[in-house]
Amino acid sequence: MTIPETTWRYDQKTEAARVVQAACQIANRFYLKQGFFVLPRLVPQNPRAVYFPDLNFRQIPEFWEKLKIPHFKIKLDEPKLLVEQVAVLLPKDDLDYTELQEKWQEKERAFWQILADFLPEEYSLVRFLEIRPTKYGSIATSDQPPSRHQPSMKIYIRQDAGPSQLAEAILIGLLTIRLCSQGFYWPEVEAIIDFLLEKTALRKLFLDFRPTLKALRHKENGSLAQESQKYLRKLGVPVGQIFTLEKESIFLDGELLKVRLSLEEERLLRLLILNQDQPVSFDLIGDEVWGERLEKFSLQAIAKLVQRLREKLAEAGLSAELIQTCRGQGYLLLN
């Protein structure tokens, strides 16, 4: 069989393009809503950690405002001017990706054969694949989804990733646009891709694969969450708030929250919003949610209440991990 023609590319321009792509996800709040942490350093093998370089983006006029364009990442793959401006700011380093390249070449023919068998329509769309190793961004992602008119894909793969993450990124590129157009949220798309890599013939190829969604569900990352919030403020990102309070109502992205909450769930969410980006203690939760009904208050009751609220956030298409556990302290809302 014929497999897609694959090229590997790493240079100053591809790194700058990756930074611009990640900056777009920051400006449009994708990372924030899905519980990713934007950090000025690499956290190896952590799918929630987005490595975003600490550069002086204020040198680029209206950098963040230019990125807050609807559907930016789909319609404007690599805005030439921004990429050129970011390239000037980036350190001129090199990256050794030969080990990843060799490991992928051992698996790629078998990978495409499996895709041709159970995803023939998607497989037929890809004739050219450009793999871009990078230091930055999330652990792996796709760019420029293939189509009949443009049968090519670009994949960004971070330096700490392996072949299984590369396979995952290809599947994301093939399936995300199609599934999202059918009303699926990002977590649901990721769940499907995790299933394909865990429960199909792909499993034998990628024995080291760890389901991304499962890894993202660790909720005890309060310190990373606070570091991320502090870093975003330093960058001067005008992302606004996910949740806001107006009189007696809770708003999500400026619209009335449509998910129905119980009285206790609403009290908890209000308390978290009022204390956003800082831990809310167990005692304060008990006082505000249960008040004088102290017989209802216990750490277990709080944990169950938080779990129910997380499930309601997921119903609204948000990450349940927006509510983080701060061990020994309480809970924190990433807002």
Secondary structure: elements and pairs:
Elements (H helix, E strand, L loop, with lengths): L4 E4 L3 H16 L2 H4 L3 E3 L9 E3 L11 H5 L4 H4 L4 H10 L8 H21 L1 H5 L3 E7 L5 E4 L8 E7 L4 H19 L4 H14 L2 H4 L6 H5 L5 H14 L7 E4 L2 E4 L2 E2 L6 H12 L5 E2 H9 L8 H17 L7 E4 L3 E4 L2
Helix pairs in contact: 1-5, 8-9, 13-14, 13-15
What does this structure look like?
The protein is 47% helix and 14% strand. The strands form 4 sheets. Strands 1-4-6-5 form a 4-stranded mixed beta sheet, sandwiched between helices. The model is unreliable at 71-77 (pLDDT under 50). The protein is globular, with a radius of gyration of 21 Å. The chain folds into 2 domains: 5-216, no CATH class; 241-333, Arc Repressor Mutant, subunit A (Orthogonal Bundle). By secondary structure, the protein is α/β, with parallel strands linked by helices. The chain has helices at 12-27, 30-33, 63-67, 72-75, 80-89, 98-118, 120-124, 163-181, 186-199, 202-205, 212-216, 222-235, 263-274, 282-290, 299-315; strands at 5-8, 37-39, 49-51, 128-134, 140-143, 152-158, 243-246, 249-252, 255-256, 280-281, 323-326, 330-333.
Radius of gyration: 21 Å
Shape: globular
Number of strands: 12
Mean pLDDT: 85
Strand fraction equals: 5-15%
Task: Output the number of helix runs.
Answer: 15
Helix content: 40-55%
Q: What's the story with the biggest beta sheet?
A: 4 strands, mixed
Write down the secondary-structure element order: EHHEEHHHHHEEEHHHHHEEEHEHHEE
Can you tell me the residue ranges where pLDDT is under 50 for at least 5 consecutive residues? 71-77
Strand order of the largest sheet: 1-4-6-5
The overall number of domains is 2
Query: Termini separation (Å)?
Result: 49 Å
Structural class: alpha/beta
